[in-house]
Structures are given as C-alpha cells and as structure tokens.
Amino acid sequence: MEQRWSLSNTSVHNINYHLIWCTKYRRKLLVDGIDERLKEILSAKAEELAIAIKAMEVMPDHVHVYVHCNPTLSAHMIVQQFKGTSARLLRQEYKSLRTRVPTLWTRSYYAESVGHLSEAVIRRYVEDQKKA
Question: Mean per-residue pLDDT for 86-103?
C-alpha cells in the first residue's frame, strides 16, 4: 500500500498538483510518436526534479499531468521546467514542430492542488480547534 505522505528533514507533506497545458493555437501536434517521446521527456525531467508522476495523459493538443512533489516546488516552477525542457528537445528532434508553430506551448497553464481531504473537512477541522 502506497503511503499518502512523504517525509523530508523538515516536513511531512502531501503535495499534489493536477497540471494542464496546451499546444500553441491548440494545434494537434502531439501525435505520431511525438506523444510517446513527450512522455519520456517529462518522466526524465520529473525524476531529475524528484517529482513523482502519478498519472499522465498526452492528448493531441494538450497535456494532463498529476504529480506528487516536495513543498519547495511550486506548480509554476514544475510547469516551467516541463514545458521548457520538452519544447527544446521536441523542437530539436522533430522539424515539423519548428515549421508549424513559432513556439510549442502557449504561455498559460492550469494548476489545481489536489489533497486527500476535501475543503469542507479541513474548514470544519480548523473551525473546531477552539472548541476542543
């Protein structure tokens, strides 16, 4: 059974993010093997950053990644690292990506923190602290 939290020298944490980003102009570029290569690149980058990818799906025009990470890593930094590394490597390896769009990814992304407990449970726990 997988443990819900992780330990470091100074913290016990359970930090998870659902991250989504799209190709420039929502073009369906992530096909014909590019999708599989992107998964390899993101997996290698995650390992380098000590991030656990719990789920990943590459659609033709966007990417979904569910990650578990250290609290010192922000969602913004993770997306920046994933997008920057993958754009550089994929554009080097696939000429079609250099000719079809000026950049591989849009500048925006979606990030949502995901926890084990719901907002309502946490709110009730905090409100009940003075009552105990």
Answer: 97
